[in-house]
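Below sits our specimen:

——
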Amino acid sequence: MSSPRLKIGLYASLVMVVFVLASYKLYRRSDTGSGSPQKDEVLIKAMLQGLSAAHYQPEKIDDNFSKRVFDLSLKRLDYNKKFLLQSDIAQLRKFQTDIDDEVKRGTHEFLDLSSKLMLQRTEDVQALYRDILAKPFDFTTQESFETEPDKMTFAADAAAQREEWRKYLKYQTLIRMSEIMDEQARQKDKPLASVSAKPSSAVITAPTRTPAEMEAEARKRVLKYFDDQFKDLKQTDANERLATYANVIANTYDPHTEYFAPRDKDAFDQAMTGRFEGIGATLQEKDGQIKVADIVPGSASYRQGELKAGDVILRVAQAAEVPVSVEGWRLDKAIVLIRGKKGTEVRLTIRKPDGSTKVIPIIRDVVVIEETYAKSAVVNEGGKKIGYLRLPGFYADFNDNGGRSSADDVKKELEKLTKENVQGVVLDLRFNGGGSLQDAVDMTGLFVDSGPVVQVRSGQGAPSILNDRDPRVQYSGPLVVLVNKYSASASEILAAAIQDYKRGVVMGSASTYGKGTVQRIVDLDDMLGDFNSLKPFGSLKLTTQKFYRINGGSTQFKGVVPDIILPDAYSYLDQGEKESDYPLKWDEITPARYRAWSNAPAYDKLRTASQARVASSPSFKLMNEMVQRMRKRKDETMVSLNLTKFRAEQTQAKMESDKYEAVQKVATPLDIAPLMADVRLLGSDTVQVNRASRFTKNLKKDITLHEAISVIKDQI
């Protein structure tokens, strides 16, 4: 029988062959047409032909497909219904059932018209908001504003649009007015010493602004915000509009089938590996300038030593080439110039905070983002020593056999925890969106004997079983797996396997995210070899398989329901696979044959004890109350534009938040510290020591982790 890795490799190869054949058909069709095909025609046709052949649940390219693309395009084009008028929608609706015919004949009338209308409305709205913000708002009147896009409608005409924008801008100004009032109240509590020969001789306070001055300042801030937003909108080019449209088409198959423009694929690779090639500086766009926010420790910029936080990047040159000015550029476009292959040189012309300019040459290198990787600590609680292991993602470097693997790293962390003589382990998968399927399989094998971990099925045929074939168990003690509604995909595979084997206790929010699908990435440049003049095309991530638990159930749509459910601060949010556009549905298949863990936890006893602790916990009680209020507030989408009413609501919300924080402050903090092995390794590197300290500091008042530790203690 083939190994799991071989099976996955063979299936990926099959997908590639399908795309090559689809592309061959595209070439033949293009050959018969008149003139050379355009990039958008080639890209869309190649995508659709490949998706029709290789997607798990391919769509028919018909009127229903056209309606799905139309609806999702409209939603993405003007989500808040602030730009397009009803007359614009009427023009676009003519294409509602024509998009399928467009892609077949290689045209793009819907994309052209929607782009043209948005460009025109962007110009119109910019003049509109600038005119509205030139005059003061009256916050004493009794009126309200709808904040939920689903409850909004497109404006009937220009007059209705102006009124909608007036309320929208008034709402934005009201928010900032309230912030300024809070700032002024804080300043009154903090007097500032005046500058004099005798500093102690006089003390002054910051000048008190009148309501009119605060309102004017609030409008100024709103104007700045929208000017920045519209500057970015106007920098959107034809390639970006095509990429957005291609992604809409891909997303109508399912939420995880996506088109990646070349730079988006780079971002995906970075998230999967925790590595990228560049200079190692965190950048931000502020006031039309590209500023250095931070330097990554150990990076090329860190070693070169001249680039500092606060520097402004004015121009970028590749080695000895002519510099390109990036002033006024969008951040994502500037980053394309600054990043580059390891070993290449980039020359940055920067302005220092003192106004001086300097050219800094930096040889690019691999940048490692340590926050991507598994990290562990030790909790000392009631005389017990318990390990804590956080995994932010199931990372793997598919392009480098020597790259880091999340399964290998978790194995190493477990080895270190074992040497620390921990009596239990909490594996934290909260906010872990998944990643490498094979790493999820290998990682499960660290906790169980050999056996099936997950079942994988393509659109047709029998499912394949991915097994852990290593009989060794890396860690056999008490185990708690923490999840929340943002734990997805590979996180759900691991949590489900631990649950089905009865190997440990899964704890967290009412359910996980509900992503039970497998994706492959196809490099379209490799597939479209005859169209070199139109490259780069980017990549396509498409859903080719669904995975199923070894008990036969799918995690798709429904997610994993924990053994012990805890109150969760995010439970009021409607986020998950079932809330996304066009998700694949839940189903089940025949269970695999497996043997449960011989020393299964006493679930009922542990659950009862946990529920008793949670019920008597002031922190959890307040969290529950806060969640109920947030849920109610979320449903109340109409907000008052009266300053007095708005401030009263803000004050009430702050009092509730302060009450929760006060209880958290008096709660007994966890005694959690980095591993001794890690401390020795860091030595005198103060940057890394501070980073390790921040990791444990943020966990000390984590009430969910505190309860997980208690569940471990119940098993010792």
About this structure: The chain has three domains: 129-194+205-234, 275-368, 372-518+542-715. Confidence is low (pLDDT under 50) at residues 1-12, 28-35, 192-204. Residues 129-194+205-234 form one domain. The first strand starts at residue 144 and ends at 146.
